[in-house]
Amino acid sequence: MKIETPVGAQSPPAGEGTATPPVVVFFAWTRIG
Amino acid sequence: MFATVFEGATLLTPRGMLREGGGYAWFRNHGPGVADPSSLKDCVNFLESWTDVHVPSPDSNLWLCGYSNGAAAAGALLLSKPDRYRGAILISGPLVSERPWPVARLRGLPILMIYGEDDRVIPRHLLTESATYLAEASGAHASVLATPGGHDIAPSSLIATRKWFAKEVELSRPAALKSPRPWEIAPC
Question: What is the ipTM of this complex?
Fold first, then answer.
């Protein structure tokens, strides 16, 4: 698995409770190379 | 891979900053599934600050997902500030925060934990102890799925995650949004 989006690459809009679309932050262990 | 799993969601995929074990990790370990407490604390502090910047509203619809060391990082974030999150999916990673893990700390929080029955990387007892805590003492609305396979993200895990997430997001929506609007109700 290779997920290498740099930290801070995306900034979702501020939420307004559960009526807003969900934001998922995915933390991988990413293999080098 | 995960873009189709979290339908309708904004997906942020930051990468760990520490080189460890042939990969980029979020914190350093003393052994598989055994965190260095100081490194874990730094990780939690950093990610909470990062999240405050990138998902700033305290009312945001924020979910965590992690794999392996990333799942352990997500679990540490959950235990640090459970009110910050709507739920979490932990794949092939144990809870690594300092024990004892607090009773009822995750009360009502939907959490899906998935691990391979033949995981050769994370000691089995760490995974099962984490699963037991999530399902019992934590107070979370936890689902634990032990899948055939090892320390990986199996296609069946992705399918299970997709179904679980869609259901939980729907359950977390305000009731007003679930009910048909007046103009959507067919006349009698």
Answer: 0.90
Burial of B51 (0-12, 13-18, 19+ CB in 10 A): buried
Distance from CA of A3 to the nearest CA of B (A): 7
Q: Which domain holds residue B64?
A: 18-168
Rounded Cα–Cα distance for residues B26 and A29 (Å)? 8
B80 and chain A in contact, CB less than 8 A: no
- Does the residue B64 lie in any domain? yes
Per DSSP, chain B holds a count of helices (H) and strands (E) of 5, 9
* Yes or no, beta carbons of B174 and A21 under 8 Å apart: no
Q: Say how many domains are in chain B.
A: 1
pLDDT tens across B109-147, in order?
999 999 999 999 999 999 999 999 999 999 999 999 999
